[in-house]
Design brief:
The protein is an alpha/beta fold and about 260 residues long. It is built from eight helices and seven strands, in the order βαβαβαβααβαβααβ. Pathway: Lipid metabolism; fatty acid biosynthesis.
Length: about 260
């Protein structure tokens, strides 16, 4: 069992119990980490505060990651409350509904900008804010998907954003390595989250994944959480700039 006692982890993107971020929170908690959970706005406060009741010692902090002043404010709170950070989980992605419903060629300039700002740039902004608090080194991780590499119907601009996200992981890893901060992505298989329900044909995607993956099943949030615990631990001390697949092996299949 990996022991993360004494490590402080902040997880952005916990929306509800079905979210991948919640699976990560549960596994980090089981490993002994101290948890801070970032929620987007006042509307989501009640949900966040309800969830942390199941994670003794966890605290919830409001932060809209598209606003630099909010990021600056919340990381000042982290510094005052915890003194340091060891683990940062970025599980944030968004694209306007029209960009997922329409053909990709119809993606508007504004929808493209919004998808990349929230899904990609926020990782840079959060990493920049976290790095000064990672005084003993640290582990930063984000969530990606196979649509970054291959065309997935209806994934559209999110696939392009995830490709940019994986490239961002590599560039951040190169920048932050001198501070002993590792940056990695977890590419999870499709999971029936609230966010994923906005993608057309999700049921077909889940069925195709289970049919073709070597393990012949879909991915569970807890499995993604387990990979996150590994990446947060000293066992992964030599791993940075990588995309780790937790998708029942689907990505290795050609047909």
């Amino acid at each position: 069992m990996i022991d993360l006692k004494g490590r402080v982890a902040v997880v952005f993107g916990v929306a509800n119990k079905r979210s991948i971020a919640w699976g990560i929170v549960q596994q980090l908690h089981a490993a002994g980490a101290t948890l801070a959970i970032g929620y987007q706005n006042e509307r989501l406060r009640a949900e966040a505060e309800s969830l942390i009741q199941e994670v003794p010692g966890a605290e919830a902090f409001q932060c809209d990651v598209s606003q630099d002043e909010e990021i600056e404010r919340v990381f000042a709170q982290f510094k005052e409350r915890y003194g340091k950070l060891d683990i940062l989980v970025h599980s944030v992605a968004y694209a306007p509904a029209d960009a997922l419903k329409n053909d990709f060629v119809l993606t508007s300039r504004e929808d493209f900008r919004v998808a990349h700002d929230i899904s990609v740039y926020s990782l840079i902004a959060l990493s920049r804010a976290a790095a000064p608090l990672m005084t003993e080194g640290g582990s930063i991780m984000t969530l990606s998907y196979f649509g970054a590499e291959k065309v997935v119907p209806h994934y559209n601009v999110m696939g392009v954003a995830k490709a940019a996200l994986e490239a961002t992981v590599r560039y951040l890893a190169a920048d932050l390595g001198k501070q002993n901060i590792r940056v990695n992505a977890i590419s999870a298989g499709p999971i029936k989250t609230l966010a994923a329900r906005g993608i057309g044909g999700l049921g077909d995607m889940l069925k195709a994944h289970a049919d073709r993956a070597p393990l012949h099943r879909n991915t569970d949030q807890s499995e993604v959480g387990g990979a996150a615990v590994f990446l947060a631990s000293p066992l992964a001390s030599g791993i940075t700039g990588e995309t780790i697949y937790v998708d029942s092996g689907y990505n290795i299949m050609g047909f």
